[in-house]
Q: What sequence folds into this?
């Protein structure tokens, strides 16, 4: 029973990873990261159900909050990038190398 | 009054040197300061030598805790083993300031720092303290070669620095290992060599630690085949730096072996002795032969110095009192002769603007005093009886024969090889016809003569009345040899036990 | 009450941050004064920390917020290091922004917030708390990295850092979730009890711990999670880089140590794993560093190597009675050296950081001998040459490693520090053994210079009188 | 008379002090205005003469002692003492060293006096006498040393002096090369000496490392060790006394001023080896195998160098080879345990060889440094005194009775025969013939016949008194010294042998006088044959012949020098240049270079990994992550 939830969250997580390493659009990447975080949240919820304690829920809430903050910053960065180059392709931003 | 003498001898030069480096002074002022300091040290050294009783224990001891948690102390002391090395470091220094006056304050500062650090390394009886000074020693050399060196000094600097630091970092790991195994065997932390010598490490990681120690010292000495930094460094370095390197610093490598490796690693030492002595002898022959075909006088001297270091190191590995005493004596003897020779080469270069043997000739007629002094130093370095070079070499060869006739025969060839390159060089530089370059060669000025004279006399005195020196160092040497034998005999029987101990410790 | 006391430094800094934000409303207030104000607060926090942590006992307050935070001597020490870093960074910022004018008061406020996060991180005894602290810290740092909005490289740096940081953060959360699933709690105490109860490696626990390690490895730029660090350090402005390199590393390692020291069984499980990570990190870092021609990048890479040394210390810690003294000392030693380097860089760098390459510093010793000497001292300290702090740090680490029977690791560490001599010496050589091509004129306030020389003193002071925590 | 022993220390000290004084004077003045030669000469002669008289005092004191306690030791100070090894700077005078002492100081003084004349006008007058004094001092240390180590001091000292004196005219490279050659070859011998000493010490040295204690402990030696010691020491002797294979330096050593050749390279220094073997007679007598080897090496050297001598054209070279050959005799003597005979030959040889050299010197002096015998001739009218003295010397050298050489040489040959070394005896007789031949070849070519170089002949003149007086003194010695050791056959009682008895370990075999007479006749006949052949060929003057075949080989000394050069010297230098040009930069250093190269390459490749694409960095993370998880799945369960 718990396994299904876990499997789902793992799948989501892996999708997130895939997204991060394959996609070049900044937005998509950040969304993939959100996906990973939510996978984690899912796992938390499921486990808290398993342990019959409310801690999991609380933790999930916390993580969401943090994720939101991160997202806000991410958006700011996105705007900044767009102001600089006018496109959101991560490959464009590779001055720092070597 | 004299109990803090060692600390003074260490920190007076270092502080003075730092002052010279940091504060804006004129070169001449700096030189005067350096001169005064080095003379003070000289007299303290002589005083110390006279006061030294030589009853095979540490004297002028000084011991204050530094880092209690690891039992590291600020521990200084002199015994028969370190006495002559200390003398070499303390006595020869004023020469440099007397003879050369063309350098900047930074140079003199570095010289002084080097002296302080070397004296520190020699007197330290705590392994960590020794290591600290050992590393500090390198920095002034690094700057002296890099800043004031010859044409392609950068390569030389990098080479010597990386080499030496590589060695010393390995040593760091090794000495920590020693401390830890003492902690595991006796349940308390200490890096004091006197207590550490209670250890008898062998097998397992001890081999590794031993090898790391030996690499460090082999690089500094240098032992074949770790000598490759030497010719470049000695040749590129300004004369005074070469003097410091060859006359004193190299000796500290050998000294380190005697002081820190032998007492702790009796078993491994006994096991590797043959290999090590081969390294020494082969190095002696190799560098000696290499010296024969050098065109550059300084480079020739560099190789000859390396060659002699091989024989000096050999004395340690033969593990008998004659050889060990020979080494300890030869350390000082070689310091005087080689040091003076390098300074003379420096003088030649200063006067002739060239070190090429081919450019010189017939100087003996222009400068009889210079030639005589040079000849005496040279004969000392080829080990002619009556000079101090003979006593050491003879004792070492004698001891080597006890250790292994084969080694002894190889070692004996030093008598021949040394003469070959030295005579050849002497012929080309001092004999034969003068050329327009050497025609107006200036003989030693009165000042120079007076500053060299003491050392020349010392060379002869040490050759004619060596007993005065030997009777101070011999007890310590015999004691160490006795201990070495006791240990290695006892251990060789049951080497298996410590090995298994080691393995237990590490899990 | 004790909660309050132990959090007092944190509160002080936080208050200072808020105060600055409010002050930011006044236009007439100079940015420089912001620096000074923040310095005051850091100093205050530092001393409070010192007073509070002065106690002899090992764990001072272990039950703050019913076990979510705990302060031990180790965390105190880490806190001290962090405050110190904040202080000196402010000093160098003061001069740096005198030349590069893109700073506002908020900069210092944000910096102080991230310091809060760091200090919280050192005390965290619970995974999600740790995560939050981590994020507070990171968000602040992200902003500081990208603070110069006009510079593309800065923007790129923040992009990379943010993206990968969030990526790693996701791993952290996942790890926390798995551990929660396994142990039924995210408190370290509970986890250790659980492990003690059933020592057989529980797959959820292992997986979770592994994920958390991933995140931490990212933050400390362990190999192969190091790739970002070089670029980000390069993109960020010099003082910020120094701040990241020191304070952030201290905080994260504090967390790492607290976490790995849960219980000896747990630590024992991961020794081999950490062994290899440490080795890879040291050598990978060296190989990255050797190729660099930009000093900031080189220092970033050398930071990787130092993380490797710290990992050695982690391998060698004794989880039964964990004091973290070695790690604490090494963090302090490393921090002093690195801060000094970046302080020097931030006043020598000039406007727009025009001097960042090895060649830009050629002949510095001829023109500014004292600065060159200071830089040399810092480099030697990083290289671990006595009698500097770096040497004692290295000495402690080797000692601990060998006492823990990790001879091989100690030797490898030594070898890697031999390799690292290379690029440290390279800078010394280009400073001393070449002739000056320019006059290294610097304008702006002298605070950075002062801090540089103060730090030089510290390097020797800590080296010669190692305060073993 | 006990305090007499305390003079012993002075004997070597005086010349050394003289050397130092003169040396300093010369060193400080030679570039400016030098002191007068008279002053130098006076100073130079003080030391030797004084020590000669001291030697006399000591000698007679020694003679007054009862036979069994004829040894005086004077321990000046402890030189060095390490563990069991205790070396005293102590001097020992016993019959052997006493005798040596006498004639070293005596001949030494003579040479000093002679040199005043010979070196007149040389700008390095002072330096020369400094070296000469130094040499005498070292030689005396060598002789008086109470143990091998002290002997080694003198041993090396004389080596140094011969180097300095050979390369005295240092402006031309030839001389310096000759000097180097001498020093290096001597060093090769010294290596043997040092090793021999070391072996000896570890074997029996712990009971005291001076001759007397060693003699007492000889019985403790195992044969192997003993023979090893003997041979190693003999290598040293070969170096110093120019025996096969180390004889090559001596002929070149004639590059030095003639008095040097006379004093050092004929009379005293080169006999040091013989003296050393005699000193260690207690060992060579104990281990007869070693003795035999010594004897054979000696006699073969005698033969070889005699062959060389027959074809040389440089007057000094001829004498040089005759020296080598005579040294061969001496070694043959000490080898066959005829130590006293060997020493006696040293003694007589010192006289007649010094005489011959000095005579040659005055001839060369007269002909303005012309040394080629083929440029001389008929000089006996021009310089009669030189002629007469040299004739005596030649007869002595040839071993013509009743001149001194005859007795000593014959004693050696007889002992060889008596101790059953018939082969050595035969060769010895043969060599005697050859010696007679080349000696008189020299005499005839130089003094008889017609002048070959007329204008040189015209300028020739008798040498000044200061040079001829020593000649006459020496001639007297050469003629009469034989009487000192008159064999019982002629009613003599072998003064020297009996005198030397206490300090040598030898036994006199008893053979019928018949055999002795026969042997004697044989050698006399050989000598006569030699002389007649020489007269036939050169008596009435002959022109320089074209050497062919064997003669050519002989003239070129069988190309031994060239062979040595090709086999030892050149390869040595070759290796040297190989090391410094190739090995050092490319091989020994290569490992380090290679390592650094690898390091840098790896660095650049890692640099390339920093592509700057954030996705790729994430990819690295994921790769690392998956590898780590693999590792974990391996390590845990």
A:
């Amino acid at each position: 029973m718990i396994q299904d939830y876990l499997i789902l969250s793992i799948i989501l997580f892996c999708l997130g990873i895939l997204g991060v390493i394959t996609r070049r659009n900044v937005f998509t990447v950040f969304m993939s990261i959100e996906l990973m975080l939510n996978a984690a949240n899912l796992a938390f919820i499921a486990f808290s159900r398993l342990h019959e304690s409310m801690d999991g829920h609380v933790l999930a809430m916390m993580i969401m909050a943090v994720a939101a903050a991160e997202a806000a910053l991410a958006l700011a960065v996105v705007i900044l990038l767009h102001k600089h180059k006018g496109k959101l392709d991560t490959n464009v931003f590779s001055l720092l190398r070597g | 009054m004299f109990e803090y003498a060692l600390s003074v001898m260490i920190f007076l030069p270092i502080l003075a040197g730092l002052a010279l480096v940091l504060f804006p002074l004129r070169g001449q002022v700096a030189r005067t300061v350096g001169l005064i300091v080095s003379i003070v040290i000289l007299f303290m050294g002589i005083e110390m030598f006279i006061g030294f009783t030589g009853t095979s224990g540490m004297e002028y001891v000084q011991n204050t805790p530094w880092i209690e948690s690891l039992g590291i102390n600020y521990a200084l002391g002199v015994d028969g083993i370190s006495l002559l090395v200390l003398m070499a470091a303390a006595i020869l220094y004023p020469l440099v300031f007397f003879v050369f006056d063309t350098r900047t304050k930074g140079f003199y500062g570095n010289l002084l720092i080097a002296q302080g650090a070397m004296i520190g390394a020699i007197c330290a009886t705590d392994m960590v303290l020794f290591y600290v000074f050992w590393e500090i020693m390198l920095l002034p050399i690094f700057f002296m070669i890099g800043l004031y060196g010859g044409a392609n000094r950068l390569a030389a600097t990098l080479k010597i620095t990386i080499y030496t630091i590589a060695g010393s970092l390995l040593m760091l790991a090794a000495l920590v290992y020693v401390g830890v195994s003492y902690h595991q065997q006796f349940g308390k932390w200490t890096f004091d060599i006197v207590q550490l010598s209670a250890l008898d490490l062998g097998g397992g990681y001890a081999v590794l630690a031993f090898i790391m120690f030996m690499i460090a010292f082999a690089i500094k000495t240098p032992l074949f085949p770790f000598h490759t930094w030497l010719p470049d460094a000695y040749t590129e370095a300004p004369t005074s730096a070469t003097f410091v390197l060859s006359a004193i610093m190299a000796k500290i490598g050998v000294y380190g072996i005697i002081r820190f490796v032998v007492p702790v690693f009796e078993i491994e030492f006994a096991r590797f002795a043959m290999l090590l002595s081969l390294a020494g002898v082969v190095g002696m022959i190799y560098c000696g032969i290499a010296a024969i075909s050098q065109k550059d006088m300084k480079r020739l001297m560099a190789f000859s110095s390396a060659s002699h270091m091989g024989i000096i190191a050999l004395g340690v590995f033969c593990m008998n009192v004659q050889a060990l005493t020979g080494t300890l004596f030869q350390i000082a003897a070689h310091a005087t002769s080689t040091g003076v020779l390098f300074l003379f080469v420096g003088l030649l270069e200063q006067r002739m603007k060239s070190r090429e043997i081919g450019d010189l000739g017939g100087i003996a007629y222009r400068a009889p005093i210079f030639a005589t002094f040079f000849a005496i130093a040279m004969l000392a370095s080829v080990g002619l009886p009556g000079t101090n070079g003979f006593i050491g070499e003879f004792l070492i060869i004698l001891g080597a024969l006890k250790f292994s006739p084969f080694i002894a025969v190889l070692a004996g060839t030093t008598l021949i090889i040394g003469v070959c390159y030295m005579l050849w060089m002497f012929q080309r530089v001092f004999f034969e016809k003068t050329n327009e370059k050497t025609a107006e060669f200036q003989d030693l000025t009165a000042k120079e003569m007076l500053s060299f004279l003491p050392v020349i006399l010392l060379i002869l005195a040490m050759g004619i009345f060596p007993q005065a020196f030997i009777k101070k160092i011999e007890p310590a040497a015999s004691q160490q040899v006795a201990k070495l034998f006791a240990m290695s005999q006892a251990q060789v029987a049951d080497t298996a036990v410590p090995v298994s101990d080691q393995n237990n410790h590490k899990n | 009450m004790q909660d309050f006391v132990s959090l007092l430094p944190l509160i002080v800094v936080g208050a200072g941050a808020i105060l600055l934000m409010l002050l930011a409303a006044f236009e007439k207030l100079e940015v420089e004064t912001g620096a000074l104000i923040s310095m005051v607060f850091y100093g205050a926090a530092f001393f409070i920390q010192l007073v509070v942590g002065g106690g002899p006992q090992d764990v001072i307050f272990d039950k703050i917020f019913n076990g979510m935070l705990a302060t031990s001597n180790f965390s105190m020490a880490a806190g001290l290091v962090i405050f110190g870093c904040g202080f000196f960074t402010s000093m160098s910022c003061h001069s740096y922004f005198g030349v590069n004018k893109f700073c506002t008061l908020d900069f210092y406020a944000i910096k102080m917030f991230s310091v809060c996060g760091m200090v919280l991180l050192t005390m965290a005894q619970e995974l999600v708390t740790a995560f939050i602290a981590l994020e507070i810290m990171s968000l602040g740092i992200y902003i500081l990295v990208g603070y110069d909005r006009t510079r593309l490289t800065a923007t790129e740096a923040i992009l990379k850092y943010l993206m990968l940081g969030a990526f790693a953060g996701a791993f952290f959360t996942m790890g926390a979730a798995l551990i929660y699933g396994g142990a039924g709690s995210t408190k370290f105490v509970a986890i250790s009890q659980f492990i003690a109860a059933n020592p057989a490696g529980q797959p959820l626990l292992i997986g979770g711990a592994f994920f958390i390690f991933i995140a931490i490895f990212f933050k400390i730029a362990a190999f192969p999670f190091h790739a970002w660090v070089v670029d980000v350090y390069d993109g960020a402005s010099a003082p910020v880089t120094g701040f990241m390199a020191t304070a952030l590393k201290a905080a994260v390692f504090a967390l790492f140590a607290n976490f790995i020291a849960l219980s000896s069984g747990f630590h024992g499980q991961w020794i081999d794993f950490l062994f290899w990570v440490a080795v890879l990190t040291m050598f990978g870092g060296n190989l990255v560093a050797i190729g660099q021609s930009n000093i900031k990048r080189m220092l970033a890479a050398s930071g990787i190597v130092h993380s490797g040394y710290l990992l050695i210390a982690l391998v060698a810690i004794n989880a039964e009675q964990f004091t973290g003294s070695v790690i604490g000392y090494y963090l302090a030693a490393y921090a002093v050296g690195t801060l000094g380097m970046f302080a020097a860089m931030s006043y020598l760098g000039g406007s727009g950081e025009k001097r960042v390459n090895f060649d830009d510093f050629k002949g510095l010793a001829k023109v500014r001998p004292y600065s060159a000497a200071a830089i040399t001292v810092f480099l030697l300290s990083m290289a671990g040459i006595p009698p500097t702090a770096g040497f004692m740090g290295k000495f402690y680490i080797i000692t601990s490693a060998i006492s823990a029977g990790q001879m091989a690791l100690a030797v490898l560490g030594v070898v890697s520090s031999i390799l690292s001599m290379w690029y440290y010496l390279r800078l010394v050589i280009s400073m001393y053994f070449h002739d000056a091509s320019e006059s290294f004129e610097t304008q702006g306030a002298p605070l950075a210079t002062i801090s540089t020389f103060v730090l030089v003193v510290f390097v020797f002071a800590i080296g010669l009188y190692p305060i073993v925590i | 008379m006990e305090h007499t022993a305390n003079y012993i220390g002075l004997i070597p000290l005086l010349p050394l002090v003289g050397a130092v004084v003169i040396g300093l004077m010369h060193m400080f003045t030679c570039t400016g205005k030098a002191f007068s030669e008279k002053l130098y000469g006076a100073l130079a002669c003080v030391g030797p003469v004084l020590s000669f008289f001291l030697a006399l005092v000591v000698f007679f004191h020694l003679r007054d002692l009862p036979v069994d306690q004829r040894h005086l030791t004077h321990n000046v100070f402890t030189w060095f003492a390490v563990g069991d090894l205790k070396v005293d700077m102590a001097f020992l005078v016993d019959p052997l060293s006493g005798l040596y002492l006498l004639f070293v100081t005596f001949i030494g003084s003579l040479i000093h006096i002679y040199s005043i004349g010979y070196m007149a006008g040389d700008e390095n007058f002072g330096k020369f006498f400094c070296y000469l004094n130094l040499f005498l001092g070292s030689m005396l240390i060598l002789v008086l040393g109470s143990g091998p180590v002290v002997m080694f001091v003198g041993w090396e000292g004389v080596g140094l002096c011969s180097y300095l004196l050979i390369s005295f005219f240092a402006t031309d490279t030839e001389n310096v090369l000759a000097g180097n050659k001498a020093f290096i070859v001597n060093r090769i011998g010294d290596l043997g000496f040092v090793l021999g000493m070391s072996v000896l010490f570890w074997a029996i040295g712990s009971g005291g490392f001076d001759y007397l204690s060693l003699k007492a402990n000889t019985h403790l030696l195992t044969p192997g060790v003993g023979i090893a010691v003997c041979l190693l020491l003999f290598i040293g002797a070969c170096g110093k006394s120019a025996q096969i294979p180390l004889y090559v330096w001596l002929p070149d050593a004639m590059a030095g001023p003639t008095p040097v050749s006379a004093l050092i390279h004929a009379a005293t220094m080169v006999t040091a080896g013989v003296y050393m073997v005699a000193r260690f007679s207690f060992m060579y007598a104990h281990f007869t195998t070693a003795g035999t080897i010594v004897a054979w090496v000696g006699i073969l050297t005698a033969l070889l160098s005699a062959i060389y001598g027959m074809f040389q054209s440089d007057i000094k070279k001829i004498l040089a080879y005759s020296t080598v050959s005579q040294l061969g005799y001496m070694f043959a003597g000490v080898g066959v345990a005829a130590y006293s005979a060997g020493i006696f030959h040293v003694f007589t040889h010192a006289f007649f060889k010094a005489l011959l050299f000095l005579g040659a010197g005055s001839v060369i002096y007269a002909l303005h440094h012309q040394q080629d015998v083929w440029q001389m001739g008929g000089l006996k009218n021009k310089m009669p005194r030189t002629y007469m003295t040299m004739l005596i010397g030649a007869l002595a050298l040839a071993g013509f009775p009743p001149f001194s050489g005859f007795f000593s040489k014959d004693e050696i040959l007889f002992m060889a025969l008596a101790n059953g070394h018939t082969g050595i005896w035969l060769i010895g007789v043969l060599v005697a013939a050859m010696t007679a031949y080349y000696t008189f070849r020299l005499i005839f070519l130089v003094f008889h016949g017609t002048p070959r170089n007329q204008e040189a002949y015209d300028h020739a003149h008798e040498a000044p008194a200061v040079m001829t007086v020593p000649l006459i003194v020496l001639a007297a010695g050469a003629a009469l010294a034989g009487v000192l050791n008159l064999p019982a056959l002629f009613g003599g009682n072998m003064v020297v042998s009996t005198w030397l008895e206490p300090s040598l370990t030898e036994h006199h075999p008893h053979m019928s006088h018949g055999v002795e007479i026969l042997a004697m006749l044989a050698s006399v006949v050989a000598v006569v044959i030699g002389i007649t052949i020489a007269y036939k060929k050169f008596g009435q003057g002959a022109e320089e012949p074209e050497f062919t075949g064997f003669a050519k080989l002989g003239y070129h000394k069988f190309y031994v020098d060239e062979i040595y050069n090709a086999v030892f010297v050149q390869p040595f230098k070759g290796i040297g240049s190989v090391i410094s040009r190739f090995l050092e930069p490319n091989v020994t250093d290569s490992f380090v270079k290679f390592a650094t190269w690898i390091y840098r390459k790896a660095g650049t490749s890692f640099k390339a990994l920093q592509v700057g694409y954030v996705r790729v960095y994430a990819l690295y993370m994921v790769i690392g992550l998956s590898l780590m998880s693999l590792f974990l799945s391996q390590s845990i369960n």
